[in-house]
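Q: I have 429 residues here and want to know how they pack in 3D. Can you give me a structure?
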Amino acid sequence: METQLQHAILPEATHDEFARQNFVQSLKVHLATQVSPGNKTVYERRAAPRFEREHQRLPQDRHEVRSVMKNEPYYQMWSTLLRTSQEMMWESVNVSVERQLPQLCERAAPNGSTLGSLTLDPDLTIPAYHRAVDIHCQPGGYHTELGPDDVAAGATYDRAVYIYAMSRLGPLNDEMGQSVVLHLKDRHADFRPRRILDMGCTVGHSTLPYVDAYPNAEIFAIDVGAPVLRYAHARAESLGKRVHFSQQNAEHTNFEDGSFDLIVSHILLHETSSKAMRNIMQEAHRLLKPGGMMLHQEVPQYEGMPAYDAFMLDWDTYNNNETFWGYDTLYGSAKIGRRVRFRGRQRHAAHDPQRPGARNSTNQKISRRRFRRWWSLVRLGCKKIAHKQRRTRMARKAKGNRPTFFDDPQIDKVVGIVMALTGRGVGSA
């Protein structure tokens, strides 16, 4: 496995702490590769036939699959071990962070010489959907502060994500941001954003790839959690990346209308409520410049997914404090777009591996490392159209059009749309 890059703010583990963390990571790999596949065997040989005998048909959705799988001893064993490994992961990292927290806070403190900036808002109200549970079972979530100038939540998250993803997000945990950059460079090679906003940045894992990809752009990143933002700023500075971090709710920011050419998020939407998701989309539309684009990277959507696969993916909804995971992924990107009611043409964006200029085998090798199971790209985007005549023509063509699902060689399962807006704004939800 790759080793996480040791930057100046990353918690340093002792020999025993590192061994404990490695054990948890190895356990997760074993569960994912050796134990989890057995669930499908149990489903196909025991659970599904039993359901078929009772109902004269196979399970049609993830709920029906759960109804027959939840009492299977093998599934119960796997599920218990997976939840236990999640709790063990946080505990193994927390021990290391708590031991050196004063030093980490001191290292993260502003020293007067910075590349980017950090703006915190002590009066910001943390959304209820964020406070209600410890997301991903991280003790205290991303916003809890243990003391002045605290960075514990950020330090814990940085190390734990590497263990959780079993090193598949790369030495800097930045594979999600890198994949979006790859998509933009491939499909929109002439796109040169000057101002970029990352919504729900946490510690900036997916933010920093945009600094390298667009060196002439100003990069902004927001989150509601002060501890993760302090850590994100210190981490970016230690890596020599200029980013302007600020504590804001993506539903309602203090940026002016038309502030950004590119707005992105990475696995943010499924952490929010249905109402918040609509607000975020409307806010992103407000912030986009004419000709701007937004892309939201998300977990695979249930729509069109086999019932068993949706059931397995839905494990996090019930067992990993992903309260809105099942609800939001149920709708799929197309339905999200219709719920938000963007007016205008919905343009389908698909990557055709056979078209001229498609990625070569080297880049396909890179792509196979990305998002083997849990991560996928939902391009729920909107592209503002600058000229009225073009807007009108596109709106006429859009009548009755519906987004479709497609496959992309950069990831395993992808659904998404790019919405071209008429410029008349976002309708009420």
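Q: Anything worth noting?
A: The two ends are 46 Å apart (CA to CA). Confidence is low (pLDDT under 50) at residues 343-429.
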